[in-house]
Amino acid sequence: MGATVTITASCTNSPLSYTWTGCTSTGSNNVCTDSVAVAGVKPYQLVATNASGNSAPASVNVDWKPLPTAPPLCTVSSSSGTINPFTNTNITLTATCSNSPASYAWTGCTSSGSTCTTTSANVGPATYGVTATNVVGTSALATVQVTWDKSTGGGNFCGPNTAYIDVPWGAAGPNGGRWLTSTNGGFPQGKVFVFSITVPAGTPHAASSQKFAMAEYQGPPAPRTLMLSENACDFPPSSTYLDGTSGTAPLLEFNVGSGPGAALQPGKTYYFSIRNENCSQSSCDMSLSIPWH
């Protein structure tokens, strides 16, 4: 409400005219506009005509919201979560605002939308903020502090296309016990996912190992590299990693103190880093799970 919506039709086979229902078009136009005074869902329909006849009706519903009565209220979060990102890698900041914001203004980051991608070459804390504006006014500044850590890994360390997910010890993923790359920005060619796991102090050795397992999800098989290290993105030719493997669905075993699998030490943080090596489409997604026992 209080705004105008523009609806555009895309038709094949050289239409000569367009007939709209629910909105106004100037002449035989594939674009129509509308505004309403009452909130709710309103349907719009189009029939296009060429020399051979009429098309089947095409429709879309628009959910009109009431005008806000207060400025937006915002929070801002970082894709790095509770772990510190490494310098010269990218993080995505996301503003979550109520009351139908129409525009956003960021501090410490450049964007005009609700998300902003940034990096830093400097070690230490940095504060990022956002305000949102609607027809009533502008929100208070919402901020998040991100502490950047120095990159210390070997060759091919984290580049600009990196996503970070923190996995508490013993926790299962949010999607039926799995983590999905499709809900974390997708997994295109060259992207790296970094899963951080901290072994709690006093964790005992187990008789059988844990498994960090990957499976294809909504995409064709794609070769990947999976590394386990005390440094994120610790891929070959570095030699500082603890274990690594490759394949379309790689798996690594780990344990506390000693094998089977890589031996992790209580009180330390470790990183599982996964990189797509040959994705032939926009995103070669996968799921990841740790069946803790």
Explained architecture:
This protein has three domains: 5-64, no CATH class; 74-148, Sandwich (Immunoglobulin-like); 162-289, Jelly Rolls (Sandwich), CATH 2.60.120. It starts with a strand and ends with a strand. With 293 residues, the protein is an all-beta fold. It is 0% helix and 42% strand. The chain has a five-stranded mixed beta sheet with strand order 13-15-21-17-18, with no helix packed on it.
Q: What is the subunit arrangement here?
A: single chain
Beta-strand content: 35-45%
Distance between the termini: 53 Å
Task: Determine the structural class based on helices, strands and strand pairing.
Answer: mainly beta
The CATH C-level name of the largest domain is Mainly Beta
- What is the count of distinct domains? 3
| Element pattern in H and E | EEEEEEEEEEEEEEEEEEEEEE
Q: Cα-atom Rg, whole angstroms?
A: 25 Å
- The percent of residues in helical segments reads under 10%
Concise description?
It contains no helices and 22 strands. The protein is an all-beta fold and 293 residues long.
Structural key phrases:
293 residues, mainly beta, Immunoglobulin-like, Jelly Rolls, 3 domains, five-stranded mixed beta sheet, 22 strands
Q: Secondary-structure map with pairings?
A:
Blueprint: E1 5-8, E2 17-21, E3 31-34, E4 40-50, E5 53-54, E6 58-64, E7 74-78, E8 91-97, E9 103-107, E10 115-118, E11 124-133, E12 142-148, E13 162-166, E14 179-180, E15 192-198, E16 210-216, E17 224-229, E18 243-247, E19 251-256, E20 262-264, E21 269-276, E22 286-289
Parallel strand pairs: 13-15, 19-20
Antiparallel strand pairs: 1-3, 2-4, 4-5, 4-6, 7-8, 8-10, 9-11, 11-12, 14-22, 15-21, 16-19, 16-22, 17-18, 17-21
